[in-house]
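Work Package 4 report. The design task specified in the project plan requires that, given a folded chain encoded as structure tokens, an amino acid be chosen for each position. We show below one input record used in the internal validation round.
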């Protein structure tokens, strides 16, 4: 576990650096808001599109991994939507349920690259490709349902969904990127990981967690315990190999998506509460990721 934690150190060091730059330098909130928008609207979609269209997998070779990832996500979504039994504030619940099943792709891709190089990145890319439309769709649905907004319109305006769908569609059709475009997308995508981790750190803030503590504990328990445990059980039952199991546990034990806050704010949800959940989830990920990587080794 110590070895795994040390391998993850550079990624969490970038998060810590982002936090330090936010609070100790002249780079204040408005600067980071612009960087976050750049990552969300340009850099991250470029990474998802290029990862999807260039993925080195076939449906047959990735089917068991995709099934396990889909099953784990659906289980997490079902548990999250059951949060209504807690009878917490309706707007807060609609905003926060996404934190239980959405995932921070910046951290997932960085960790996969550190632990297994291109092969592991390709595997988690498959999971991200199927997870982004599903998780973003459910998150948008929960907020749109509460706020009376249209689901289709929100999905069509979501750059993460559109980039993934476009990449998967091009991959299915056997299309290839023009040689001159490939290095441009790769440069944009590679810069998104470091900048994404820095923005995660810059966005850390824990104020507001005192509200609806029961909801917070339930959602973070799903994200950092129940979801990865379900994934591990599915990996065992589907006889995934070590690399596939490792990819699945990186995918399911990672912190929640930092863009959950952006989505909550843009759809008139409880942004401060979601920001606090994202921040605490990021800190918990420093523990849950090494712990479940150790489980993968067994």
């Amino acid at each position: 576990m110590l070895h795994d934690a040390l391998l993850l150190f550079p990624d969490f060091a970038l998060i810590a650096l982002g936090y330090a730059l936010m609070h100790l330098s002249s780079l204040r909130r408005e600067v980071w808001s612009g960087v976050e928008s750049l990552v969300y609207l340009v850099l991250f979609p470029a990474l998802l599109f290029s990862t999807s269209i260039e993925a080195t997998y076939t449906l047959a070779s990735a089917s068991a991994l995709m099934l396990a990832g889909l099953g784990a996500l659906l289980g997490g979504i079902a548990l999250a939507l059951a949060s209504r039994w807690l009878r917490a504030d309706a707007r807060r619940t609609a905003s926060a349920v996404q934190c239980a099943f959405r995932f921070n792709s910046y951290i997932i891709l960085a960790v996969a690259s550190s632990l297994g190089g291109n092969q592991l990145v390709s595997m988690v890319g498959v999971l991200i490709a199927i997870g982004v439309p599903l998780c973003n769709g459910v998150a948008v649905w929960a907020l749109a349902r509460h706020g009376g907004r249209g689901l289709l319109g929100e999905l069509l305006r979501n750059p993460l969904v559109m980039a993934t769908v476009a990449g998967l569609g091009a991959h299915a059709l056997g299309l290839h990127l023009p040689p001159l475009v490939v290095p441009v997308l790769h440069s944009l995508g590679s810069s998104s990981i470091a900048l994404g981790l820095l923005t995660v750190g810059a966005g850390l803030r824990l104020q507001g967690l005192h509200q609806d503590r029961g909801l917070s504990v339930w959602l973070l328990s799903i994200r950092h315990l129940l979801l990865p445990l379900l994934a591990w059980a599915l990996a065992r039952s589907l006889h995934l190999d070590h690399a596939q199991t490792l990819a699945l546990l990186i995918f399911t034990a990672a912190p929640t998506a930092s863009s959950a806050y952006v989505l909550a704010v843009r759809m008139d949800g409880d942004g401060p509460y979601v920001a606090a959940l994202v921040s605490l989830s990021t800190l918990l990920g420093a523990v849950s990721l090494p712990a479940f990587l150790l489980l993968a080794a067994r």
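The mean pLDDT is 83. Validation will be extended to a larger panel in the next phase.
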